[in-house]
What we know:
Distance between the termini: 50 Å
Radius of gyration: 23 Å
Helix content: 25-40%
CATH class of the largest domain: Alpha Beta
Largest sheet: 6 strands, parallel
Strand order of the largest sheet: 2-1-3-4-5-6
Number of domains: 3
Shape: globular
Strand content: 15-25%
Amino acid sequence: MTTTLRKLNTYYIRTYGCQMNELDTEIMVGQLKARGLQACDDETKADLLIFNTCSIRDLAERKVMGKLGQLGNLGRIKNRRAVIGITGCMANAKKEGLFRKLPHVDFVLGTNNIGDLNHVLDEVVQTGRQLVMTDDEFSENLNYLQTHREDKVKAFVSIIRGCDKHCTYCVVPYTRGPEVSRPPESIIEECRHLVSQGYKEITLLGQNVNSYGKDKPEWTCLFHDLLYKLDQIPGLERVRYMTSHPIDISRELMEATRDLRTLCEFVHFPIQSGSDRILRKMHRIYKKEQYLEKVAMLKEIVPNVALGTDMIVGFPTETDEEFEETYKVMEDIEYAFAFLFAYSPRKGTPSMRWKDDIPEDVKNQRLQRLIGLQNEITAKQLADMLGQEVEVLVEKLNRSDRGHNILKSRTRCWRKVIFPGEPSMIGTLQRVKIHSFSNQTLIGELVQKNSLVLQH
């Protein structure tokens, strides 16, 4: 195979999984564009194919393996040979083992090595050898200002990588390594740069953003300190963050949610289970009572706060009674958003040593009950918003309907709102009066056109 056939002019990237993977893709695209490559929407014609993968659930891995298996004959079919790479959590979890199942793959690049993408591409193109780079710990070597984003209103910004919590069901500590905080000056610089480009909303990302700065006490900058610094950036309208661990949600963070102009009143507060025994088996390091005390404190400090959660049903040995405890927590707290999952074992996690003893039909029955409950809660909350005026950030054109433009926007509490308006409003704050809703989407009308339009 000559290097001429493997010259890289175009790239195709497919992203699986969470917002962290989406941001990693944006960072890699920035590197590829700086290298001179152009995006290609057709995977059969691109010179470089990258699959940025997820290992959180078995289904995500099977989708990737199936897709990559289909590409095995791509070179012979097209009489050409694309360079194929696997990045993301599967890369860290399976490493060189991926070459045994997928011999046509050229490189495996771990989550802690995306800054080495150009080096890896040079090696693969020049030598033709397969290459693996999967460091266990992240070392800061990324040019964040080079990141390429398609969205021009909202941006993800990485503040901490890795996780130290070691929940027994989770692969993240093994695929992304220990927690490593990013220097606050670097975060502030990137956020200022984004605002100068017209961005209005920034979502701070990390496996556990609440741990920010704890690994670097000499910085004297914990998560709430960082939020206060970002709040001073002129032109920045909204700050969000995900994901949180309840043990690290502090009173200072709650007070920042109340006091800061930019910080949105939405807190992802994942409990995972309502049973103390299951929480202990999950190694969540808190009890239900501790969790409920923090929720009560947050609601007292920020009365208009909206809460989100994650729930896993069918964890090994979960009884019907323990599931009912989870159901009761959801019923009592009335979350605004809930991400609900049936347990699936993941190789390399401590929970693999336990028998997956809850039948799939029981898991599905429990999951459907939670989904039904959350749908009822959501419908009640949306009905309560009818007639209210809300501030929204207009994100994009949702659709054109019979000559009318329908815009998509979100409230500070992350509710999706659509309303008729002009595309020129994209990237501005507007006030909308809610008159109806459909599923989980609020529908309204503009209150005062251009009343809160921001200058780009």
